Structures are given as C-alpha cells and as structure tokens.
Amino acid sequence: KSEIIRFKEYLEKKFDVTITEDDIREAIRVNNQVRTSLKHLYEVMRNDPAPITGHDLFKVLYGSTFKFDRKAIPGEVDALVEKINKEYAEGKMLEKKPRILITGCPVGGATEKIIDAVENNGGVVVTVETCWWTRRSRMYTRLWRRGILISDAPS
C-alpha cells in the first residue's frame, strides 16, 4: 500500500494535481463500465453465424483504448451492441464460417494482419484473446471478486 501511496504522490507532484480518493473511485467506476460494455460487445460473437467480422470487433476493442473521453465509451459501445443485436434479429449476419479464436500477444499491427489472413481465407475470428484486452479483463474480474480491487460496480 505504501508503494501505491508513494506513486500517487509522485503523480501529484509531477503533474501538479491532487488525486482524491473520490477521483480514484470515479475512475474505477468508469473503467468498470467500459469493461462491462466491451464484454457485452464480445458476447455478440457467441451468435453462430457471427453478426460481424472479427476485424470490425477488433477495430472497436482496440480503438477504445485510444479514446480520451472514457466516460463516453460505455454509451457508444452499448449503442453499437444494441444495433448489432437488432440487425441480427432482423437476419443481418455473416454466412456460416469456421469460427476462430486468436490467442497470444502479437504486437505492431500483427493482430490485425492475422485477423485479416483468417477472414480473407474463409474463417471468422470470433474472439481475440491477447494480453491487451481479454486476459487483462479476466484478471481484473478475478481480483475484484477476491476483494483485491476496490470497486462499487461489479464486472
């Protein structure tokens, strides 16, 4: 705990800001909402045939990591999930294809190249389990359930 407090104090000094406990709790709440919304996006890929390409899924997941307004992400992703589910119910979906899971930690644009290679050759990537999203999300969920992460919102 002392290391975390020391790090917080370093950040406050470095950026000339005050970080309150309420700020931390709000950041946790917002990021839990983001993770929940992105989890719901992942869940649309349970449908068989898939409703969207793995490439489109990847663009949203990866793109969300570059959005500065974290509070806007859940609403945008939830609206996209609602749209995908509505269109799927109306019959808009991909043709049935072999379902592929990409796992590992490719970097430097390699994930996108792998997804494109699979989908350009007759498959559909239904999930991407890499260190930057799926594994990290599962780790946070496990820590929260054990009471190691303090949160007022379940994942």
Fold and architecture overview:
With 155 residues, the chain is mainly alpha-helical. Helix content is 56%, strand content 7%. The chain has 6 helices and 2 strands, in the order ααααβαβα. Helix 5 links the parallel strand 1 and strand 2 (124-129). It is elongated, with a radius of gyration of 18 Å.
Radius of gyration: 18 Å
Helix percentage range? 55-70%
Termini, distance in Å?
23 Å
Helix/strand structural class: mainly alpha
| Widest sheet, order of strands | 1-2
Largest sheet: 2 strands, parallel
Strand-residue proportion: 5-15%
Q: Averaging pLDDT over every residue, what do you get? A: 84
Name the helix and strand elements from N-terminus to C-terminus, one letter apiece. HHHHEHEH
Question: What are the low-pLDDT stretches, counting only 5+ consecutive residues below 50?
Answer: 147-155
How many helical stretches? 6
Outline type: elongated
- Report the strand count: 2
Concise account of the structure shown:
This protein has helices at about 1-15, 20-45, 55-65, 75-90, 110-120, 135-145; strands at about 100-105, 125-130.
Summarize this structure as a short list of keywords or feature phrases.
2 strands; single chain; 155 residues; mainly alpha; two-stranded parallel ribbon
Task: Note the topology.
Blueprint: H1 2-15, H2 21-43, H3 54-64, H4 73-89, E1 99-103, H5 110-119, E2 124-129, H6 134-145
